[in-house]
Amino acid sequence: MQNFFCGLRKRTAWFRKETIISREKNREAKRRQVLDGAASAFFELGFEGASADEIAARAGVSKATMYKYYSSKTDLFRAFVERESSANASRIVVDYSSDSEIEEVVFKLAREIVSVVTTAVIVDIYRVCIAEARRFPELTQAFFEKGPSFAFSQIAQVLKAAAEDGKLAIEEPLVAAQHLDQLCKATLFNKALFGLQEKFEDNEIDAEAQQATEFFLRVYGAAK
Questions:
Q1: Three-class SS state of 93
Q2: Is 80 among the domain residues?
Q3: Are residues 179 and 95 part of one domain?
Q4: Are residues 40 and 129 in the same domain?
Q5: CA angle 209, 114, 215 (to 5 degrees)
Q6: Could you give the CA distance from residue 38 to residue 47 in angstroms, rounded to a whole number?
Q7: Do 93 and 173 fall within a single domain?
């Protein structure tokens, strides 16, 4: 009998654990659903033009459900921006070692930057943030901190390591990272931002990254 009750307690504990995990998965799925619906509304109507009713309708949930997960429209937009910015900015990572060829390292960084900033969702976030910057500066701040600023720090770490190995002549890695970022936005990003072109071929991305690499190394390349 003691073994029976011991087994029952274990099964009950397992069932409770599985129930908690299942509920958390459902909550996470619902959060994603709300965020995706909000993104559709924000990108089409702008932050101010996207009403709570419209967001809830596009997400396929009630307003009560929407507010259960996000306390306000600002909170909702911030959560979406943070999710997309962090996910894309984290892509800008390149392995570096003292044996790495600096031209290859910079090119890989540049290519990741060009790929990220021409991604449709990132371009759309830029558009919304630029349009609403004066009225809702907290939104643009959230995007900058989780997106560009985070990416700059990632890039700067690589550049700093290369400079310490004598492969680059850099005194301020963070500034150099920002310069590389701007070089990578010279052409394709602007075409995407202004709606002149939506999709880019690999050879276009490679060409933009190569040009950025060459210009960057002219300024920051170590003397040989």
A1: coil
A2: no
A3: yes
A4: no
A5: 35
A6: 9
A7: yes
Quick one: tokens of 16?
A: 């409770």
Do 140 and 212 share a domain, yes or no? yes
Same domain, 91 and 174: yes
Distance separating alpha carbons of residues 39 and 50, to the nearest angstrom: 10
Query: Residues 6 or more apart from 209 whose CB is under 8 A from it?
Result: 107, 110, 111, 113, 114, 184
Residues 52 and 108 in one domain: no
* 199/191 Cα distance (integer angstroms): 10
Among 70, 93, 109, give the residue marking a domain's end: 70
**CATH code of the domain containing 122:** 1.10.357.10
- Going residue by residue through the chain, which has 224 residues, state the pLDDT in tens, using 9 for 90 and above: 555 545 556 566 555 554 555 556 677 788 888 888 888 888 888 888 888 889 889 888 888 888 888 888 888 888 888 888 777 777 787 888 888 899 999 999 999 999 999 999 899 889 988 888 888 888 888 888 888 898 999 999 999 999 999 999 999 999 999 999 999 999 999 999 999 999 999 999 999 999 999 999 999 997 65
Is residue 147 within 8 Å of residue 85, measured between CB atoms? yes
Rounded to 5 degrees, φ, ψ at 50 are -85, 105
Tokens of 180: 């590389």
Q: How many domains does the chain have?
A: 2
Which amino acid appears at position 125 of this protein? I
* 77 assigned to some structural domain: no
